[in-house]
């Protein structure tokens, strides 16, 4: 029986080339024509991968953003930062494993890092609620951000969630209120804030740690007011229309840059971040260092003023003159 293809459906041509290449590379007795075929296949594989990933549609982008091998916040903490010291608890209810927070070093900079965490194994995912944070997670993040501001340390936020946890308990503990409070407090936090969407940026769960001086997104991530499935359920009364919703939402990195929602798009390695964690981490580090160098030293009044104006400028609208009053 033929083994089913384990990857994303649109990656099938890439997978077939990889299998052929691996088979040739494993040969112990290689002839000159074999070496030539290996070189040809490598070129063909790179071209095929580039062709596929340069033309992803919105629904395919969602699939890549959710890829099980994509680097998560914990991966960036180990590959980009040094001396990470995790901080726990919100001092109200408990600790939320879906939200990581702690101090770390990034070359010469001391920073606070916060971010959603999904987990790799099913046990980890269950403990992290698949990246859906509870109110205590957002309260924890805000408490640590205030601590960072007290010591004048920049904040780096990694966004990767399908949305805030939608359970009854979360609502009883003030889910909507705490997200709104976080957005307000982050808008006036007197320290530089950099936000990066590394995978999914879904709904208020993303906005709860998404207000910053610079908002960036990875090339194959998405950032949206609602997940495609949620949108399809509301507009078309069925999750089977998620692909249609993804096209309508205009939430890819290219769209968001055009609309002024994000400031930067960070390129991913060929074939997506899930194929090369180290190269993606290297690109992330370069971006963070460059952005921190630009923000550090900016007067607080100017920093907060520009942050406020940045979000006030978002949105597209039309104005018409008010209808003339009835003639006297």
Structure description:
With 328 residues, the protein is of the alpha/beta class. It has 14 helices and eight strands. It has helices at 12-25, 32-53, 58-65, 73-79, 122-127, 135-150, 168-172, 175-187, 203-207, 228-235, 242-249, 253-259, 277-295, 300-312; strands spanning 82-86, 99-106, 109-116, 155-161, 193-202, 214-218, 222-224, 264-266. The mean pLDDT is 91.
Write a brief structural summary:
The chain is of the alpha/beta class and 328 residues long. It is built from 14 helices and 8 strands.
| Largest sheet, strands/sense/barrel | 8 strands, mixed
Tell me the β content: 5-15%
Count of runs of 4 or more consecutive helical residues: 14
The named CATH superfamily of the largest domain? 2-enoyl-CoA Hydratase, Chain A, domain 1
Distance between the termini: 85 Å
Order of helices and strands: HHHHEEEHHEHHEHEEHHHEHH
CATH fold annotation of the largest domain? 2-enoyl-CoA Hydratase, Chain A, domain 1
User: Which geometry do the CA atoms define?
Assistant: globular
Helix percentage range = 40-55%
Q: Architecture of the largest domain in CATH?
A: Alpha-Beta Complex
């Amino acid at each position: 029986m033929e083994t089913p293809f384990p990857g994303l459906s649109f990656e099938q041509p890439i997978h077939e080339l990889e299998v052929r290449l691996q088979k040739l590379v494993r040969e112990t007795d290689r002839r000159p024509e074999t070496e030539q075929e290996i070189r040809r296949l490598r070129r063909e594989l790179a071209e095929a991968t580039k062709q596929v990933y340069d033309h992803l549609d919105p629904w395919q982008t969602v699939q890549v953003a959710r890829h099980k091998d994509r680097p998560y916040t914990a991966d960036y903490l180990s590959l980009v930062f040094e001396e990470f010291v995790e901080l726990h608890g919100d001092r109200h209810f408990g600790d939320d494993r879906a939200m990581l927070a702690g101090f770390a070093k990034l070359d010469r900079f001391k920073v606070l890092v916060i971010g959603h965490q999904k987990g790799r194994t099913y046990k980890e995912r269950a403990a992290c609620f698949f990246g859906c944070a509870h109110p205590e997670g957002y309260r924890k993040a805000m408490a640590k951000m205030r601590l960072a501001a007290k010591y004048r340390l920049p904040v780096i936020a990694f966004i990767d969630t399908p949305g805030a946890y939608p359970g009854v308990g979360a609502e009883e503990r003030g889910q909507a209120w705490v997200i709104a409070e976080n957005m307000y407090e982050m808008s006036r936090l007197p320290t530089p804030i950099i936000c990066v969407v590394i995978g999914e940026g879904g709904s208020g769960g993303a906005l709860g740690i998404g207000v910053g001086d610079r908002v960036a997104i990875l090339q194959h991530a998405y950032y949206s007011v609602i997940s495609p499935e949620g949108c399809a359920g509301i507009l078309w009364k069925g999750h089977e229309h998620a692909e249609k919703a993804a096209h309508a939402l205009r939430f890819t990195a290219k769209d968001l840059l055009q609309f002024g929602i994000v400031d930067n798009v960070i390129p991913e390695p060929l074939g997506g971040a899930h194929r090369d964690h180290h190269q993606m981490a290297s690109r992330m580090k370069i971006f963070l260092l460059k952005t921190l160098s630009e923000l550090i030293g900016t007067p607080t009044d100017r920093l907060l003023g520009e942050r406020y104006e940045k979000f006030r400028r978002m949105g597209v609208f039309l104005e018409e003159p008010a209808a003339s009053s009835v003639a006297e």
